[in-house]
Design a protein that fits this description.
Blueprint: H1 2-37, H2 47-55, H3 60-84, H4 93-121, H5 131-143, H6 148-172, H7 183-217, H8 226-234, H9 239-263
Helix pairs in contact: 1-3, 1-9, 2-4, 3-4, 5-6, 6-7, 7-8, 7-9, 8-9
């Protein structure tokens, strides 16, 4: 019984620290995108670019280590959510879809944690991130597999679905149900979630489109990073204004992550 309680407590801490780490990454994404919209920095960056920027700060290595630890915890929690149905989504088609999304999220944040750990290994040589080249390399590797073009098409459709789903969540989701806080506190937090999810969804759509085109044309050079997706937003008519609004939304999503770290209802699965 004591071991089970300790495991449950450890999972709760991993999840809460993970939500905070994810929040920090999105605050960084939004802040750099906002600076780009204001012409105060050359371009928006993706998550890897944000980590590399932080690595150049004083005590940047400490910050990266903390973020990496939090992201590892978040990846573990996401996989636990998916495998053991910690959020009680059930075994309906919708429930399995949500759990598949949680598993994919765990893989993505696990990969981001690995990127952070790689930065610690080469801390002395940290330079400007070439996220576009990395996206090309990943796409090229996938296209080399049998049916790789179909995998890229599927990935593009999944990312597009993720983006549309996030926008829908921002518009319709009752986020207060996820939180354990008084009505006044929840009323302050929920708008951050609504704006944040909608902004994250909008920012993700170009990324999905890039992957889809890369698969359809069987050209790895069509794949792009999330930083590229944000730059595409900026290149549209009134793009600086649009990017600025999306950037504010990404910061809001990050702040919601900090709120989740404190108030999120986290229920370790009964199977553990």
């Amino acid at each position: 019984m004591a071991v089970r309680l300790n495991l449950a407590t450890s999972l709760q801490w991993a999840a809460r620290i993970g939500y905070a780490a994810r929040g920090a990454v999105y605050v960084g994404l939004g802040a750099i995108a906002l600076l780009a919209a204001l012409d105060l920095t050359p371009k928006a960056k993706g998550a890897r670019g944000v980590l590399e920027t932080w690595a150049t700060w004083p005590l940047g290595g400490v910050l990266i280590a903390l973020i990496a630890s939090g992201l590892i915890g978040f990846a573990v929690w996401r996989l636990v959510q998916a495998l053991f149905d910690a959020d009680r989504h059930g075994t309906t088609l919708k429930g399995w879809a949500v759990r598949a999304g949680q598993a994919l999220s765990g893989a993505v944040y696990g990969g981001l944690a690995w990127s952070a750990l790689e930065l610690l290994d080469v801390f002395e040589d940290v330079g400007e991130a070439d996220e576009t080249q990395s996206a090309h390399q990943y796409a090229e590797a996938i296209l080399a597999w049998p049916g790789g073009d179909r995998l890229l098409i599927a990935a593009g459709l999944i990312v597009l679905g993720f983006g549309i789903g996030n926008v829908a969540q921002g518009l319709m989701q009752d986020f207060a149900k996820r939180l354990s806080c008084d009505a006044e506190t929840c009323a302050r937090i929920v708008p951050l979630a609504k704006v944040g999810y909608a902004a994250r969804g909008l920012a993700t759509l170009p990324l999905g489109a890039f992957l889809l085109v890369a698969g359809l044309e069987v050209r790895a050079s069509q794949a792009r990073s999330w930083g590229d997706a944000l730059q595409v937003v900026e290149q549209q008519p009134a793009g600086a204004w649009i990017l600025g609004m999306v950037a504010v939304g990404l910061v809001a999503f990050g702040l919601f992550g900090f709120a989740e770290a404190i108030y999120r209802r986290i229920r370790p699965p009964e199977a553990l």
